[in-house]
Write a structure and sequence with these properties.
The protein has helices at about 5-15, 65-70, 100-110, 125-135, 155-165, 175-185, 190-200, 205, 225-235, 250-255, 255-270, and strands at about 25-35, 35-45, 50-55, 80, 115-120, 140-145, 215-220, 240-245. The chain is of the alpha/beta class. The chain has an eight-stranded mixed β-sheet, with helices on both faces. This is Pimeloyl-ACP methyl ester carboxylesterase.
Length: about 270
């Protein structure tokens, strides 16, 4: 049983639930890209350095990324984007596939003149971040994949869901209302269709084409991305590091942000400058 610290849990929830209101570190920003109004949280006062873009997972939003964002914002400008159809961003008529989501992010980065960036994607967000690095390489200086999906050893929705459920006891229970709010924003139909899109995408075919330095992490209590899967992805990359986040579940960005940041910050220090 995890020894939960209620003060830290309240702080994580405060960070996750703040948008669109500004807080001490972050503010909400909006821009229209290809007819869709996109929302992101950005550091109000940017430290010097390359911006770090955080890419969320399936059926969620920027919200669960904010505990990690707060830690990274001590050293880097941070942007936590809601992809089209999720969080506070507008929704296209149909759910976008991985390449389309990566293109939306690329157009957004050019629109707001933010690139090139360092990118961190969690879960399905790791798939989108990899597509961004593969298809729009000039925009990505370095790449962190946190608990990347989809492991082909679990080729169905049922098996993927089972492994996700196995990890729930290690997640911060305060994340539940955050996830439910995200799911309400996305809608069940978009979430279900995005699940199909995630299963159809093959990150292992994209990674050999990525030329940016890559760090792949999995949580020590991870149930979705196995150590075997991480080793397989590592073998595909010309420039890769791997690491295990101590005590972390799948959503390390929310439940164990300090432990994840301790691995990510030195990597960005080495690689994000260009």
């Amino acid at each position: 049983m995890r020894d939960w610290n209620w003060r830290r849990m309240r702080e994580r929830h405060r960070l996750a639930a703040a948008a669109p209101r500004p807080d001490a570190q972050f503010e909400s920003r909006f821009a229209r890209v290809d007819g869709v109004r996109l929302h992101w949280r950005a550091t109000r006062e940017d430290p010097p350095g390359t911006p770090v873009l955080l890419v969320h997972g399936m059926a969620v939003s920027h919200r669960y990324l904010m505990p990690l964002a707060a830690r990274l914002a001590e050293r880097f400008p941070v942007r936590a984007l809601d992809m089209p159809g999720f969080g506070l961003s507008g929704a296209p008529d149909a759910p976008a596939d991985v390449s389309a989501l990566a293109k939306w992010i690329a157009v957004w980065l050019n629109t707001v003149e933010e690139g090139p960036v360092a990118v961190l994607g969690n879960s399905f967000g790791a798939q989108v971040a990899t597509a961004l690095a593969e298809e729009h390489p000039a925009l990505v200086r370095s790449l962190v994949l946190v608990g990347p999906t989809m492991d082909p050893a679990y080729p169905t929705k049922l098996r993927q869901t089972w492994h996700w459920l196995r990890g729930l006891p290690s997640e911060d229970p305060g994340q539940l209302p955050v996830i439910l709010r995200d799911l309400a924003d996305a809608g069940l139909r978009r979430a279900w269709r995005t699940f199909d899109i995630a299963l159809d995408d093959q990150i292992d075919l994209r990674l050999p084409n990525v030329r940016a330095p890559v760090l792949i992490t999995r949580g020590a209590k991870e149930a979705v991305a196995s150590q075997r899967w991480i080793r397989e992805l590592d073998r595909l990359l010309p420039q890769a590091d791997t690491a295990v986040v101590p005590g972390a579940p799948h959503d390390a960005t929310y439940t164990t942000p300090d432990e994840l940041a301790a691995l990510v910050l030195p990597f960005f220090d080495r690689t994000a400058a260009g």
